[in-house]
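INTERNAL AUDIT FORM
Audit reference: QA-55
Scope: verify that the stored structure record matches its stored sequence.
Auditor: D.O.
Record contents follow.
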Amino acid sequence: MDRSGFVVLTDVVADAILEVRYYGTYNFVGARIDGYHEPTALLTRQAADSLLAVSNELKSMGYRLKIYDAYRPQEAVDHFVRWGADLADTVMRPYFYPYVDKSRLFELDYIAEKSGHSRGSTLDLTIFDMRTGKEVDMGGGHDWFGRESHPDFCGNIASETWHAENGAWTLTPEQFANRMLLRKVMMKHGFKPYECEWWHFTLANEPYPDTYFNFPVSNR
């Protein structure tokens, strides 16, 4: 398929930090995912340009962007689907879904046959603090399957008001504020948040809203 409308993310946002989880083995599958040929990230030109504006604003505050995933080929999504159907493979359950039975991952929409990532204008990311040399504490990691990943966990996203959770897991006011900072800056520059994952955003005016691409993730 034609990738002429796509760019290598770091060609536009030069100082973005890449940790492409699906090229490596630290992900919920526990293996390199089909279609990830290089540890790079691709986006549509429009999404990359908007992300540059995000990066510039956060850079003025002492932060950089850290990218976990961007464009995801359909063959990668198909890999997830095959893995999800293999109920015996739970190697990574302690790290990503300890409180969810694997048999429910489709039902709960953690796995689906189509992904907005395959349209090229969706990405998973966080904020990296240049002063501490660490990721900003979001109170939970990328691809954690649970309500703790919802942006509004322990707070009201409309008013950005924190509240404690009644349970074993809660966020601190600082962790909630960090989620709101990422959300606010991404939305300011044209991205839509996803209600179930604090790290997941899609360009609101995405150029290929009905096209699911299947070329590999590589620099060429």
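Auditor finding: record pair retrieved intact. DSSP finds five helices and ten strands in the chain.
Action required: none
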